[in-house]
Fold these 2 entries.
Entry 1:
Amino acid sequence: MEPVHIIGAGLAGSEAAWQITRRGVPVVLHEMRPAVETFAHKSGDFAEMVCSNSFRSDDDVMNAVGQLHWEMRAAGGLIMEMAGRHRLPAGGALAVDREAFSAAVTQMLRAEPLVTIAPGEITQLPDTGNWIVATGPLTSDALAHAIRGVTGTEALAFFDAIAPIVHAETIDMSVAWEQSRYDKGETLAEQKAYINCPMTKDEYEGFIDALLAAEKTEFHEGETAGYFDGCLPIEVMAERGRETLRHGPMKPVGLTNAHKPQDKPYAVVQLRRDNALGTLYNIVGFQTKMKYGAQTQVFRMIPGLQNASFARLGGIHRNSFLNSPTLLDDRMRLRPRPNLRFAGQVTGVEGYVESAAMGLLAGRMAAAQALRRDLPPPPFTTAMGALVNHITGGAEAKTFQPMNVNFGLFPPLPEMRSGRRGRKDRYPAYTQRAKDDFSAWLATQ
Ligand SMILES: Cc1cc2nc3c(=O)[nH]c(=O)nc-3n(C[C@H](O)[C@H](O)[C@H](O)COP(=O)(O)OP(=O)(O)OC[C@H]3O[C@@H](n4cnc5c(N)ncnc54)[C@H](O)[C@@H]3O)c2cc1C
């Protein structure tokens, strides 16, 4: 039988390899480390955790990432199995002994007779065969160049510039209002495409002080090559002058406060819809290197966001990722070259768990193809399905930035109470529905 080739033995590639061999299909696993290094990896082992040693919350009732753990375990995932074996005490989080964990993943794959390890960097995209590209946020330059040759230069980003994303139901609409600047747009929906949060002069000055004082993270050494001026962090804009933001992303022009039409806001923060469901909004132009704790404090100073709950916080990192909503089909194949599947962080998901989950799915889909079957994605009521649906279609392609799994990606349950208070009933209902639907999806295979 023709093997499936996987480029990259990170979190995604390792999980994909495992899933494929469980279905009796051979794998060739291409890995460039340790011969070719990245600025973040430290070893030649597979599935190296480059920064924190945590797979985040393991709560599969009240937390979306915990639900994703549950689904990966139900699907016999290697990453979750090895994480469980090398677990460290960390409250409700799944933290691991990182070295023991990646040594164990490496050993499992090296010991698997259906896996052939092929050391070395892949620099071209193959025209034929069944391939999975799982080269991660630090995809080597030569391969990134080859990918851009097929997708176009705009379609593979080298940095993410993530503006914070807010759960729509937690925005205080008695303070904020819907309006596009100058009411632009043909339809009413377009004229109301943005949510606006007004600031007085005092609120603006207080906000700038907090931005300047907030703790920031630094770029890693070697990370900034290719970083450009077009996605400056808001705190850097504020450092360039206290008025810079008021003339940039916070300019108050073309907007009338629907609650107080006589009051001219001194500055306005705009939020734009981030998904087709309308459950998530991003804060326009607010990419930042502030530390996560500081972000929550500073952004809750914005009138209307005082109780905001964040689906993800902002960041700027070296990160190669595709514009997947335009490039990948729902089987995770590259539309212009369907012999290539993509998996992991390079598809525009964010995080160890999400990357490994996309590896699991791509692996099962590639194995199905090798066995002349077709595997549809899990329903988007599941954590895995919600995530793959987001990257391959649900997300806004124009503003696409990497995404963590979160309940905002799940289709709402109309009968459940919305808002923060409804969570204690809503979240268990989401995760129960996800478990039922994921089990049914597994049972079809
Ligand atoms: C600096 C940094 C810190 C991060 N911190 C965290 C964190 O704390 N928590 C979190 O959840 N997520 C974090 N992430 C995000 C992300 O979850 C991880 O990067 C994760 O490892 C992604 O999994 P992956 O399998 O897609 O990529 P990787 O795990 O990076 O695996 C990709 C593999 O492909 C190999 N490769 C690349 N190009 C080629 C090529 N041309 N030929 C052959 N092999 C190749 C690489 O050597 C690597 O082994 C971080 C990312 C970065 C860059």
Note: Residues 423-443 form the longest helix (21 residues).
Entry 2:
Amino acid sequence: MMNDPLKVKNQKLKTPNSPATLRSAGRAELPAFAETLRAGRRTPNFQLRMVAWELIRSCNLACVHCRASSERGPYPGELTTKECFRVMDEIATIAQPVIILTGGEPLLRADIFELAEYGTKKGFRMVMATNGTLITEENVKAMKASGIQRISISLDGPDAETHDAFRRVKGAFERSLRGIEIAKKYDLPFQINTTITRANLHLIEKILRLSIDLGAVAHHIFLLVPTGRGKELQDQEISALDYEKTLHWFYEQNDQVDLQLKATCAPHYYRILRQQAKKEGKKITPQTHGLDAMTRGCLGGISFCFISHVGQVQPCGYLELDCGNVRVKPFPEIWEESRIFQDLRNYDGYGGKCGRCEFRKVCGGCRARAYEISGDYMAEEPYCIYEPA
Ligand code: SF4
Ligand code: SF4
């Protein structure tokens, strides 16, 4: 389980890594600067375990809920192959995370397999998040050869009508299913990702059944975070009560299906997990609850971060806060020293009911939703019905 963060909030402006100091540190001065920082590293307990890397912003689809509002592009300023290699070298000095190659559509990036292979050689677990429509026999072979261990494919409806409406491209559903068949043919494990909104809430059970029938190794549900194009969908966000019911239903499915289930970016699932387990007299251990016993709700800045197509490091793709740019600062310094990451690691600093909640260490609330609603990423999660004692 996560260790308690150091209580740093009141010290942060006095340290050598205040935002102003960091901004003024040019790359040429970094070796000496890095030494200064190393002497004062404050949160050694927050081990990086996963990075989502938006290697390209362009996409061949135009999904209604897209975080990045991706279009066909091209988008200027994307990190070059060489820059990506350097960033991976830097990451390897502090961690061996899972790297999610994402976009936009990562298969549109010409050097994608070169990057995957480089990461594999560094010892990272390389996986890819794709919309599935561009998968061919040729690129599945290249995925396998470059060491990609799993792909995730998004399905937001159990049939062409509902899925294509989300994706805003006719034929997207059929093409994704064809991509899945090719992945299966070459024994490339795949998981299904589903973003839940009011439009498909009633279809979630069917999508889960379809994932099982297709042979997916996992089904991950994402609760819509209204940023990017999803902002226009604010009225599509399910209510806090439906949110609660959906997560309870998801908890119950755990005992009934064989594939791995994960509620992603639905932090209070980890509160519900504990509440339900307590009612059932169960202890939460890796033996009884698998990975759920070892993780927490919001991982942004805790064990996970996002790198944008232009190198901006963020807590996650939905929380577009500039924690530092890999073109300006070495990645380890951003991960260990960013003021925003320091804040997110200070669970006692959360506002409102999240700050008083006994589940704040295992849940944390969605910081992106808090930010969208209030402008304060430390504010309380707006879509939780729980009232702490
Ligand atoms: S802030 Fe946390 S829970 Fe919310 S979208 Fe980002 S990683 Fe997920
Ligand atoms: S109040 Fe906040 S920390 Fe507590 S369960 Fe709800 S979202 Fe999580």
Note: Residues 172-185 form the longest helix (14 residues).
